[in-house]
Known about the structure:
Blueprint: H1 3-14, H2 16-25, H3 36-41, H4 46-56
Amino acid sequence: MRITVFRRLMAEEFGGIRAATLLSDHVIGSLGGRTPEQALAAGVPAKDIWRAVCEEFDIPRERR
């Protein structure tokens, strides 16, 4: 998954402002206690981060 696709999915799911806040401020344990932005910077694949976000926020399977 490209990072642009990941960011689009985040914006569609959470809205632009909330998505930006979650990306930079929300720490997810399954990402090693990092925010999604920190995980991206560390080289974690965007697809893995999207899966972690989906699990963290109980996003329904049909939107994953």
